[in-house]
Amino acid sequence: MKKPTVFLAALLILLSIIACSNSRTSGITGGSGIQSNSSQNEGENGEPQMTTLRLFTALSDRMNGAGKVEQAIIDRYMLEHPSIKIEVEALQDEPYKSKMKIYSSTNSLPDIIQTWGQPSFIKPLIDHHMLLELPANKFADSGFIKGATEGFSQDGKLYGLPRSTDYLVFYYNKKIFADNGLSVPTSFEQLKAVVKALRAEGINPIAVNGMDRWVFPIWFEYTQQRQSGSFDRMDDALARKVKFTEPGFVAAARQMQELAQAGGFADGYLTTDYGAARNLFGQGNAAMYLVGNWELGIATDANFTPQFRQYVGAFPYPASAKGAATDVAAWFGGGYSVSSASKHTAEALQFLEYFFKPEHWANTLWESGVGTPASRFVMSGKETALQQELFEIFSSMKSSSGTPVLDTSTADWKEAMMDLNAKLLLGQLTPEQFTEELDKAADIAASARH
Fold it and tell me: What is the pLDDT of residues 351-390, one digit of tens each?
């Protein structure tokens, strides 16, 4: 079994729920529940001396979901600290990463930036001394769950703080399923049967942001785990301990291609970006949506009809004889780092210390129904049905994938893996050719690492 950090996290969260259920502190939603503790710097004449912090985030939607919670905390912080102004720049994931390359190459990183605790993203920034080492003692009371900061650390030093615990699931429209006499699939064969039945009725089966491409390599981790019984096999292949051409990988690739060729994904899925895929599902034009648990806010998103919000549910990736539904592709998601070039590191650290107080980010995120924190939180007692279903998937986890394999090596490896998965699904490569090409890419990545 792969390093069980996320599974341990689930246990720790459950313990914290039991321990803290009678002492919950209100969060930020609605602008109440946080005690003001204003502080400000004063100039020579006693006037406030304004400091501007630039914060760059990939939570692009500031009116819904985690982006709304993030903005609420920022707004509250500025009210309580009138000498601090926080300017937010927010882009979707892929545009964000492209802009980060520009900022990095010109040595002009904003003061606080979103980072991912994955070697392909954060390691180059650390190696080029672009991130500030964070004083771990400042965040000792933030309640980060065991293993959550590992991906944001290097050589025993902390360079970032994680916001969330992420895992890949299927969302589904219960009304579409019921209207077509369908049950939640618990095996790959049942999933194919559901796809066939939906296509026969002219219904898009699975919405997915295929244009962004990262979701397919994570799906490949699921399919190979269901073949081998272990998420470790992917890491072993990347480490060149085994070959990607072994039968289990080929069989996993064949399953993926079969589902794609059966019309499993919504029409035009490889040119569909994140927002379009989400809207396709939310507007009732697809029966399922393959994405992370961070989309649990879709059940409360006012952009979608009350009927949709009432009927949205979630289920884990179908099991097999070797891989159970409790074996989940899960990892710690995006977080924050401070630029080493910032002229306001003390103010940036002060903000992050405030942000990660449990009653601010963790409890508010969960209470708002828009994500699962990477730090301990308390059940509110007002969870939506979708939250409860996602928490059941999370808390029943027996093994987890850890950081997705596409993010554990070089940038070229990540690009190759995403490209090869897309070609597999398009039928441009056979499963055998796909795994052969993965082996070549892994060899190049191994050489680059050494």
Answer: 999 999 989 999 999 988 888 899 888 888 888 899 999 9
Angle at 276 between CA 434 and CA 259, to 5 degrees: 35
Helix (H) or strand (E) holding 409: none
Tokens of 95: 């545009």
Residue 427: other Cβ atoms inside 10 A:
10
User: How many Cα atoms occupy the beta-carbon half-sphere of 87 within 13 Å?
Assistant: 7
Beta bridge partner(s), residue 89:
56
| Residue-level length of the chain | 450
| Nearest alpha carbon to residue 54 among 111, 97, 138, 129 | 111
User: Residue 418: left if φ>0, alpha if ψ -120 to 50, beta else—which one?
Assistant: alpha
Number of CB atoms found within 10 A of residue 166's CB: 23
CA distance 87 to 85: 6
d(CA 171, CA 184): 10
**For the whole prediction, is pTM greater than 0.90?**
no
Contact 160/117 with Cβ under 8 angstroms? yes
CA distance 284 to 176: 8
Rounded distance, CA 404 to CA 406, Å? 5
- The two beta strands, 153-154 and 157-158, are antiparallel
Counting beta carbons within 10 angstroms of the beta carbon of residue 45, is it exposed (0 to 12), middle (13 to 18) or buried (19 or more)?
exposed
Residue type, 384: T
